[in-house]
Design goal:
Distance between the termini: 66 Å
Number of strands: 4
Structural class: alpha+beta
Radius of gyration: 18 Å
Helix content: 40-55%
Number of domains: 1
């Protein structure tokens, strides 16, 4: 009986531990989605960043490129990104389901523009705006 209870306990702990690693809180609004996505990107937490990303082929390509660039940074540069602050320049609701979000981080100070979309009640980041502005 003790072995069965121990096995159940171990399985329960494993399931809870696995679920906590990938369970992130859904964004409450456009600002929340942007802030969580940007912070995760600056911290190198690309699993979390993908959680807040609208999953289409262009966004998947762009986030992979961002991750590769981040992975290629030195440890010192990664720490500077992790300790940087998000400086919001402009938040503009285009309509009830699209918000433009312009910001820079205090380390690099490169202005970045992204869109936040509300799709089926969920707020998600769309990086295609970033791609359109970098041409």
């Amino acid at each position: 009986m003790k072995k069965i209870l121990l096995a159940i306990l171990i399985i329960t702990v494993a399931i809870v531990a696995c679920n906590n690693e990938t369970s992130f809180k859904k964004a409450e609004d456009a600002q929340d989605a942007a802030r969580e996505f940007i912070r995760a990107s600056l911290d190198g937490n690309y699993d979390k960043a993908r959680f807040y990303l609208y999953p289409d082929s262009t966004n998947n390509f762009l986030i992979e490129r961002w991750k590769k660039n981040y992975d290629d940074l030195s440890g010192d540069e990664k720490e500077k990104y992790k300790s940087s602050e998000i400086v919001v320049l402009n938040i503009h609701p285009d309509n009830d389901s699209v918000t433009s979000y312009q910001y820079y981080n205090s380390y690099k100070k490169d202005t970045t523009r992204i869109k936040i979309l509300r799709i089926k009640g969920e707020w998600l980041v769309d990086l295609k705006e970033f791609m359109n502005n970098s041409k």
